Structure formats: structure tokens, C-alpha cells
Amino acid sequence: DTGVSQNPRHKITKRGQNVTFRCDPISEHNRLYWYRQTLGQGPEFLTYFQNEAQLEKSRLLSDRFSAERPKGSFSTLEIQRTEQGDSAMYLCASSQGSDTQYFGPGTRLTVL
Amino acid sequence: AQSVTQLGSHVSVSEGALVLLRCNYSSSVPPYLFWYVQYPNQGLQLLLKYTSAATLVKGINGFEAEFKKSETSFHRTKPSAHMSDAAEYFCAVRPNAGKSTFGDGTTLTVKP
User: Fold this and answer.
1) CA dihedral defined by A12, A15, A16, A21, rounded to 10 degrees?
2) Where are the beta strands (DSSP E) in chain B?
3) With an 8 Å Cβ cutoff, are A100 and B97 in contact?
4) What is the pLDDT of residues B33-54, one digit of tens each?
5) Is B4 an 8 Å CB contact of chain A?
6) Which of B41, B100, B105 lies nearest to residue A101, judging by beta carbons?
7) Phi, psi at residue B73, to the nearest 5°?
8) Which chain A residues are within 8 Å of B102, Cβ to Cβ?
9) For strand B44-50 and strand B32-38, is the pairing parallel, antiparallel, or unpaired?
């Protein structure tokens, strides 16, 4: 068990481009969460999955954001038409049911 | 709905001094409470969790946290600070299932 992994670790893009991030949870964890963290703040919840079902979405998740977990294992978070305000660290976490959430190293997005 | 307030965005102590990191929460249901640490450009690492068992939770490296329901607090303490304790610390509250809500973090500086 190697923990939660996220790719890429860093992404620099130009405003208006689309980006996609990947999260691989701890194997057999049925819940997967996405959070966003901006400088000087704590992580803010975006969405979470139980297996392949997306159970909750934050109002922070505008229509430019979409997340999937097609087979109940890895997940992708796509941001379309990126804006400078999307620059942040995107964190993924996984858990087995309501047990402790374990976080990945994050993907740092910079939108120029 | 739940929320977390971390009093003091920056705490500075001398090496060997007492460390007190404050966390107050609000939750509509009995919560799980957590302390995480984050080093620059990394994800969050779990340090302590309270899950309605003992009110005093002991973690690694001499840190402990006490749950006080009457004060809705989960402050974290360490009798003697070490240089290696310097980091950013986040308190989080979570109901039985679903998302965590984080405070804005406290940056701990340890002076030699």
C-alpha cells in the first residue's frame, strides 16, 4: 500500500486551456474526495465519491469543473476554460467508509 | 453544518517552550475531530483524531489534544517544542460520513 498518489504534481497552463488531474486512492478505499487549497487557507471541499457514485458536490464546483470515478478506483478532475482564480493546490483523499481520510501530495495548478 | 476556527494564524515559541494550538468547532452532530500537519508543497499528514472514545488523544512526538465538548474545543499541546515541529497545522471537523471542514491553519515557528 503506497498511499494516495496524484498526477501531475505541478501543472502550469494558460488561461482558457483545459486541464485534467488524476488521483489514485489507497487500494480498496471506497470513498474518494477532492479538495482545493489556496494560499493561506485550509482545504475546501469540492466533491466526493463512494465507489463510482458522486454523492456530494460543493457550490464551489462550477460548471467548468467535472469529476469522475468511472470504475470506483482512480478519479479524474477536469477544469475547462481555466481562469487565474483556479490557481490552487488540488488535494485528493481517500477513506474506507467513514474512517480516516488520507491525503495525497496534491497537484499545484498555476494559471497564467 | 460544521465550521472550524483556529485562533492565531501564526504562533511563535522558543525551543523547549510549551506549544498550544487552538481549535474551536461547531457541528450539528457529534463530530470526529482531526489535526493534520502540512509541510511546504505537500499534502496533509494525519497527526491526531478524536472519534468519541477517550477525550485526551495522544499523538506522535509528544503532541496531544483534548476534546472538550462544553467548550467545543480540540486544542493541541506539546510540553516542549522542538525545531522539527515547525510547520503548518490544520484542525478539521467531520460528521460521521462525508466531507471534512478545515480551519485556516496555524503556522508554528520555533525559535532556537
Assistant:
1) 30
2) 3-5, 10-14, 19-21, 24-26, 32-38, 44-50, 56-58, 64-68, 73-78, 87-94, 101-102, 106-111
3) no
4) 999 999 887 889 999 888 877 7
5) yes
6) B100
7) -130, 160
8) 42-44
9) antiparallel
